[in-house]
Design goal:
single chain; 2 helices; about 75% helix; mainly alpha
Length: about 90
């Protein structure tokens, strides 16, 4: 049983580190997006590689951030079916 608790604790530790990486990626993506917009409007030039890098960072944020938010029990829950209410009048 202690072995499984150690595995669970290590998974939680790893998820905590992934959450920190995702927080940093959010900040970097915002700075990169603002910088890209300023360069595009100020110098009338742009690079698709910066936009591609933003999309890759977004994908990493979504994939790694999902496990972190689920660990913190703050995951967004979406209901596929409306709740059934049998007490309708």
């Amino acid at each position: 049983m202690r072995f499984l608790l150690r595995i669970s604790a290590s998974i939680d530790w790893f998820n905590q580190k992934l959450g920190a990486v995702c927080n940093l990626l959010v900040l970097l993506a915002c700075v990169m997006s603002a910088g890209n917009a300023m360069v595009r409007y100020a110098f009338d030039t742009s690079s698709n590689s910066w936009l591609e890098l933003q999309w890759y960072m977004f994908a990493v944020m979504v994939m790694f951030g999902a496990s972190y938010t689920l660990k913190r029990n703050e995951h967004v829950r979406v209901e596929m079916l409306p709740p059934l209410d049998f007490n309708t009048k």
